Amino acid sequence: MRRRSFLLAACCIPALAHAARRELVFVVHPYDTPSRIYTRFRPLTLYLAGTLERPIKLVIASTYDEQMAMIVDGRADLTYIGPTPYVQARDRAPIRILAGEAENGQAFYQSAIVARAKSPITTLADLKGRRMAFGAAISMSSTVAPTLMLAQAGVQLGDLAGHAQLDRHERVALSVLHGDFDAGGLRLDIARQYLPRGLKIIATSPPLPPHVIACSANFPTDLETRARAALLNPDDTGLRAFEALGESTRFVTIDDSHYHSVRRMLRTLGK
């Protein structure tokens, strides 16, 4: 009997070891083309894989809703997630923030409303009777913040000649450049990339809480501690991985209280 128990235990050891080293999943929302997202985030996942001693699979969700569902139900272990999706996912499951994204030492980002450089549009009020392009409905920088900016300028969606959700920032920028829409909502750093190509910035939002890297509710606490430390105190490999995200990108300590302003914005818009 003792020999049989020993054999059973021995058979279980490889299975337990395999479970302990299971592949982790890191999911990113589709804010840009898949190839550019992969180029930016693959170094980060490799860095974290080395730190956690686990293989990490990088997944680019097909929609923001898919990203939220994956981190909420545990199909994803880690995620790079924007303010609005984070708040909505946090309402559905106790996902945890590991760190917030910072650029040039600033843990915030901004939204911009753009138009063609030669357009007569110079203020938000000029957008009445015009066509407006937004990104994904859940995107803070390309939909939520621009919609609130318009409302604060006295322009409701019903005052526009038309509007559409184009999902990715690139599609918004190109649709304005090509004249399909008169204006569009973009993340400010992305808007600046299109200025040499013929866009101009009409208005910018106040500072917005940053994107975060978060973990699922059932992510092991020891891995959470190690991942957080790797983000907040990177080695040379980590710094090179961060540079792939953006030349001045770093990660800083941040918590859920920073996102109360997002919750207020969503309530204001009835979302």
Structure, briefly:
This protein is α/β, with parallel strands linked by helices.
Q: What does this 3D model show about the protein?
A:
With 271 residues, the chain is an alpha/beta fold. The chain has two domains: 2-105 and 210-259, Periplasmic binding protein-like II (D-Maltodextrin-Binding Protein, domain 2, 3-Layer(aba) Sandwich); 111-204, D-Maltodextrin-Binding Protein, domain 2, CATH 3.40.190.10. 43% of the residues lie in helices and 20% in strands. The chain has helices spanning 2-20, 34-52, 64-73, 83-92, 140-152, 169-177, 188-193, 221-232, 236-245, 260-268, and strands at 24-28, 56-60, 78-81, 96-103, 111-116, 131-134, 162-165, 183-187, 199-204, 212-215, 249-252. It has a six-stranded mixed beta sheet, with helices on both faces. Strands 7-6-8-5-9 form a five-stranded mixed beta sheet. Strand 1, helix 2 and strand 2 (56-60) form a beta-alpha-beta unit. Helix 2 (34-52) packs across helix 8 (221-232) and helix 2 (34-52) packs antiparallel against helix 9. It is globular and about 55 Å long. The protein starts with a helix and ends with a helix.
Distance, first to last CA = 63 Å
Regarding CATH, which class of the largest domain? Alpha Beta
**Biggest sheet descriptor:** 6 strands, mixed
* Spatial arrangement of strands, main beta sheet: 2-1-3-10-4-11
The number of helices is: 10
Structural class: alpha/beta
State the helical fraction: 40-55%
Q: What best-fitting shape do the alpha-carbon axes yield? A: globular
Average per-residue pLDDT, rounded, comes to 92
Let me know the CATH homologous superfamily of the largest domain. Answer: Periplasmic binding protein-like II
**Tally of discrete structural domains:** 2
Order of helices and strands: HEHEHEHEEEHEHEHEEHHEH
What Rg is obtained from the alpha carbons, in whole angstroms? 21 Å
Give the second-level CATH assignment, the architecture of the largest domain: 3-Layer(aba) Sandwich
Low-confidence stretches: 1-19
Strand content: 15-25%
CATH topology of the largest domain: D-Maltodextrin-Binding Protein, domain 2
DSSP, total strands: 11
